[in-house]
Amino acid sequence: HIPLYKEVALIFRARWGWLSPTAGASRVPFSEKFYIGGTNGDGMVRGYEEGTAGVRIIDGEVADPNFSVDRPGDWEIPTSEPVNIQYDRSESFTIYNLELQLPIAPPSIYAIIFTDAGRGFDGSSGWRFSSGLWRSAGVGARMVVPGVGTIGFDIAYGFDDSRVGGWRPHFQIGRGF
Q: Most CB atoms closer than 10 Å: which of 89, 100, 123, 146?
């Protein structure tokens, strides 16, 4: 938190994560993998549907993190038949969040202007520090309620995949980030 003026603050968060199988195991269990996208606890990348900013599997193969359905030439997609795109949990991730908090009724009600960037990747070998991240920006409001936590509403625009991005509303109840 960086105080800017009175109760206006700039908040920057950076999170990285890697998983690897335990000794004797060949894979990380599905339930232990990261669920990236939306406002969930593993990786908040607003502007995308919950869990869709992770690994993409296109027609049964893990897609390159730089692939985008919105940028022709990154990957050949046949136009004559539908492409089967699935979103899977990730074994590594990178998340960056930048928020400007503006007090409305301090200290419990405030507005935010934010931008997010992040992605989940297939294993630690596929992890990226900054390339291939999905980006979004938006606005929101937060209310801190004693005994309940933070109640929030965000509206964000995901820039990098029109199938799961675009304008998305997000609701939060519980601990704040």
A: 89
Q: What angle do CA 37, 39, 40 make, to 5 degrees?
A: 80
* Calculated CA dihedral for residues 29, 126, 132, 48, nearest 10 degrees: 0
Residue 20 burial (C-beta neighbours within 10 Å; 0-12, 13-18, 19+): exposed
CA proximity to 11, closest of 47, 54, 50, 44? 44
- Reported pTM: 0.83
Q: What is the DSSP letter of 23?
A: T
Mean pLDDT for 150-164 is 90
pLDDT tens readout for residues 73-103: 444 555 545 467 788 888 889 999 999 999 9
CA angle 88, 94, 98 (to 5 degrees): 120
Q: How far apart are CA 32 and CA 128, in angstroms?
A: 20
Quick one: tokens of 28? 């990380």
